[in-house]
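Model it.
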Amino acid sequence: MSNASTPAISANSYTGYGQAIAPPDYDHELAEIGPGTPCGEFFRRYWHPVALTSEIGELPKPVRILGEDLVLFRTSQKADGQIGLVHRNCPHRRASLVFGKCEERGIRCCYHGWLFAPDGEILETPGEDDDAGPALDVRARTRLGAYPVVEFRGLVFAYLGPPDAMPEFPYFDAYDVPDIIMRPYRVDYDCNWLQVLDAIMDPIHTSFLHSQNAGAQFSEGMAEIGELEIFERGLQFLGSNTRRVDDHVWVRVNELILPNFTQAGAAFQADGTRSHFFGRSSFTRWVVPVDDEHSISLAWANFGERGDPEKYNNQEGCELIEQGEIVDRTWEERQRRPADAEAVEGMGPISAHKGENLMPTDRGVSLYRRRIRRLVRDLAEGKPLPQPQQISGEAVRTYGQDSVLKMPLKNEIDDGKFLKDVGNAVMNMQFEAEHLPLEERDAQIIAALAAMEERGTP
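Modeled.
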């Protein structure tokens, strides 16, 4: 006789055992970025930020980028000293240059005093006669591994690829938005670069993670799912989400330029309740692989009328803009109000990509991953890689932005179709103006948006 208080359980409906025996694997081709790996070689054909300028002081700074242990240093204590990015171990007896001494001409090893220039040249070998054969020989055939660097507005960029393939340092139009204050910041992630980058091409996550899950982390209007569109334009991927917020239509655009440059709309400036024409990105950001299980976001947060409110121009504000919550929170706070870090780090050090079930709303993620895979394989076949900087001296046009137009709901039309038409019209007016000089381009787009609002139709 069965016990009426014991619930009946059908074991056949549970799949935990089978999934534990054979857990899904990760995407080795895209996730692994160490030296010599296919995706690591792909990343090494582009410039990446590797540190904040403010992180480089009187002492050498250890850094790990693309699976390689390196040292950043400045040749003197003065702000105009030259920055070097070199291999961590001295080529003499392999002592760590983390313990080296920064001098006027370079970095000196603590163990035997060898001195190295920022480009890796051996300048001195103390203890050996300068004109002796061994000293002359080692200087002729040996250099400390070193990489080119560019210090730009508080960020230090490096190129870690083959010297003969070094591209032009890219210049983006986001650097020249009038009346914008750019504040450098850094946020570290304990997971693979791919799961951090995925979020930028996943506009719908904002409606849940940052809105419906535990209340609005940015604004109430972001809870609306809206009409999603993805635009692929060479290395550039744009994900637009067009929402209705009462009488307003809000077009928000997330942007990825391969391999890892990202922008979006403002975090706090626009909320969908007032007109706002061609507001620019809250951040200008790179997601940089540290190694297979760690990554960093190095960026500028952008403040001003076309960026975010200046009251957020502090470290805590940058963290809120980056991920929706501050970094230093208790475990309970992270569980109750998870933000981007909890979502992406919660997948594990490397997400089991083979266990994903991608849906139509994941189209942006699918497209950009596919494009990177093609580029990785093109490189392996010896084909040249495209660069963001297509025209030398011309700023790369970018589209991470918010535009909010007062366009009240009309009962006689399908509002979903109307929102989609508005979103496409906003994107097309930007594409049509991209050939213009920057000031003329922005003025034309803003005028076109105002005219669209006035007539009430796309």
